[in-house]
Amino acid sequence: MNVKITTIPGDGIGPEIVREAVKVLNKVGEVFGHEFTFEEVLMGGCSIDAYGVPLTDETIEKCKAAQAVLMGSIGGKVGQSKWYELPPEKRPEAGLLKLRKSLGLFCNLRPAHLYPELKKACPLRESIAEQGFDVMMVRELTGGLYFGARKTEIVDGEEVAIDTLEYHDYEIRRIAKKAFEIAMKRGRKLTSVDKANVLDSSRLWRKIFAEVSADYPEVQLENALVDSTAMQLVRNPGQFDVVATENMFGDILSDEMAEIAGSLGMLPSASLREDSFGLYEPSGGSAPDIAGMNIANPLATILSAAMLLRYSLNLTDEADAIENAVSSALAQGFRTGDIMDEDENGLTRLHTDEMGDKIAELIRK
């Protein structure tokens, strides 16, 4: 297979971690007989520096021309970076929101898997860490509060900020179908998360999920309120399999899942549209404080590359090879600093590029 992939290294540690994912994909190509062609484009703070905007039309077109997009990290630290002195629509994250909308990426997948070797990094009580968990978050990505109309105005002499939470039937229905399809391939249990006791948008969400469930009788659907779900994730995440929710709730809950899995550096993500096209990125931020130090954890980006193979290219064996290589490296005691346990014997601390080398070395058919 000849595959064209657009890469967006981005800001901070982004270029370092994307470089290692590309290294691993090239090794997959070598082992399995595929050819990957990569074209690098700018987005985020680096695009602001180069072009004055976080996302150019040229970058959008180059992403559309590829079979998939592999991205690093976007932005810097709020309050410390010059980029955040700009109006909100000119800041790095505005480019990411625009790109998602331009590419039609309405479905975000964020798996949270606790590797047995990293159970000490899990902040939950020992009994929960011993049990482990494997949760897939399905987040609606292009609707809701983040994309609704917004304004700031003066009312009776006081400044008032207004953000609009809006969902259309079709937006909820298509994410519901994706969630049920993913549940069918996993444990056939789906938790739909909303705030239906307060919000009309959530009541519509719950109604449509119930309608779509009729087409998937094998899937057990349960409804849960977002505040209760946040609590249950720290009490017993193993009770969940697939969790589906709207944009802002998904943003918050998926970060919570990242923390209980031990490190953001371990969590990949995929943003999909209705066909096979997707954008793949790590769940963590740009970590500007460690950029250029060769100590960032590239595993989330490497695992995102595995999701790229699985969801956009239907290369299941190749995706398995990457995931197995990551598991093997952890089992052999190789760690980057964020997942290093200084009290555990037999571990080897690796730099960013060394971890990429190790995963590439362990790729097998």
Jot down its keywords:
12 helices, Isopropylmalate Dehydrogenase, ten-stranded mixed beta sheet, two-stranded antiparallel ribbon, single chain, alpha/beta, 365 residues
Short précis:
The protein contains 12 helices and 14 strands. It is of the alpha/beta class.
Report on this model:
- There is one protein chain.
- The chain has a ten-stranded mixed beta sheet, sandwiched between helices. Strands 6-7 form a two-stranded antiparallel sheet.
- It folds into two domains: 1-114 and 264-365, Isopropylmalate Dehydrogenase; 123-260, Isopropylmalate Dehydrogenase, CATH 3.40.718.
- Helix 1 (14-32) packs parallel to helix 12, helix 10 (299-312) packs antiparallel against helix 11 and helix 11 packs across helix 12 (352-361).
- With 365 residues, it is α/β, with parallel strands linked by helices.
- Strand 8 (189-194), helix 7 (200-213) and strand 9 (220-225) form a beta-alpha-beta unit.
- It has helices spanning 14-32, 45-51, 57-64, 92-103, 126-131, 169-185, 200-213, 226-235, 247-260, 299-312, 316-331, 352-361; strands at residues 2-10, 35-40, 68-73, 107-113, 134-140, 150-155, 158-163, 189-194, 220-225, 242-245, 268-272, 278-282, 334-335, 348-349.
- The two termini are 16 Å apart.
- The mean pLDDT is 94.
Terminal CA distance: 16 Å
Tell me the series of helices and strands, N- to C-terminal.
Answer: EHEHHEHEHEEEHEHEHEHEEHHEEH
CATH superfamily of the largest domain: Isopropylmalate Dehydrogenase
Query: What is the structural class?
Result: alpha/beta
Total count of strands: 14
Which CATH first-tier class of the largest domain would you pick? Answer: Alpha Beta
User: In DSSP terms, counting alpha (H) and pi (I) runs of 4 or more, how many helices?
Assistant: 12
Globally, the shape reads: globular
Strand line-up of the largest beta sheet:
2-1-3-12-11-4-5-10-8-9
Computed CA radius of gyration, to the nearest angstrom: 20 Å
Low-confidence stretches: none
- In terms of DSSP E residues, the strand content is 15-25%
CATH fold field value of the largest domain: Isopropylmalate Dehydrogenase
Write down the overall mean pLDDT: 94
Total domains: 2
So, CATH architecture of the largest domain?
3-Layer(aba) Sandwich
Helix content class: 40-55%
Q: Could you describe the largest sheet, including whether it forms a barrel?
A: 10 strands, mixed
